[in-house]
Amino acid sequence: MLSTAPADRPAAEAAISQLYESAGLSPPRFRWVSSPLIALSTGEPGLPGQLGQRYSDLDGTVPQALLSLGSDIRPGAEASSRLFEMWVSKPLSASWSSCVDPILDAAHGRRSPLLSWNKRFGIGWIPAWFDFVRRRRPGAARLWDSLAATVSACGPWWWPDERVCVVSDPPESLVVETAGDSDEVRPHCADGPAVRFRDGWELYFWHGTRVPEWVITDPTAAAIDRETNIEVRRCAIEHLGWPAYLDQTGMRLVATAPDPGNPGFDLLLYDLPRNERVLVAVNGSVERDGTRRRYGLTVPGHFDDPLAAAGWTYGLSGAQYSQLLHRT
Length: 328
Prior knowledge:
Elements: H1 9-22, E1 29-33, H2 62-67, H3 79-108, H4 114-124, H5 129-134, H6 141-154, E2 158-160, E3 164-168, E4 173-174, E5 176-178, E6 185-187, E7 195-196, E8 202-206, E9 209-211, H7 213-217, H8 221-226, H9 230-240, H10 242-249, E10 253-258, E11 266-272, E12 276-282, E13 294-300, H11 306-313, H12 318-321
Parallel strand pairs: 1-3
Antiparallel strand pairs: 2-3, 4-7, 5-6, 7-8, 8-9, 10-11, 11-12, 12-13
Helix pairs in contact: 1-6, 3-4
């Protein structure tokens, strides 16, 4: 799923052709592209329209025929299957949603029906199932071998149609991090694109959130203030750093106070235009790398006491907040 090795084109074509044959279909022609961005937008000689325009619904199409393969040989409800679902299938599905889905969304648009094909096929036939089920269903060995060979040869980057199958080369580079305390991985790179394909198409991510290039390469207070997307603003400020952002904007420090819920760190209250203020605090929980994230919260402009402002964000009074032993 996250491999950046070049596709094995002969192996991919052979394996996909076997899947077509298993579904009672004639093997397709193959069109190889350099990235998902152009996979569905260019036409195939002799075929009407573009591939992406012909998929209005997965029902009754070649993808549906392939999805139905082996529907009667999926793992059952035995205890070993339930454990596999908990410890392997769910983490892989979460990583798919955080790593593969954003790439496909960027390439085809969130509403593209073809996203259903990639997700349902990619997660439904998680490669780790292959050996697990193969040993329990010997009669399906050829099907499982074809599925495993397809995933190994080209990953999830292929789109089938009746007469042509479009296959993309995998990314040239994919930089990920482990998210929180889970086994989920997500794209993140602090000094360049987190995803780059061999034709130069690249995407930028900050801790799993897709952001414009400037957030990574040139975050400035002026650019942040022009940004209307709240999540992008948050990521840009985190990357630039609150001290630098506050310095560049010239915000006036109103007051500071030790944070009772986070001993050793202070609460900083800054003035903002439009009768608002920003409370800058440090996360009470330690990140996986041992650091603590600094963040800012917008509060009403009438607050002069950082403790009162912090309490307001929790629905508490300043006196109540001052009694906290620890916050997360």
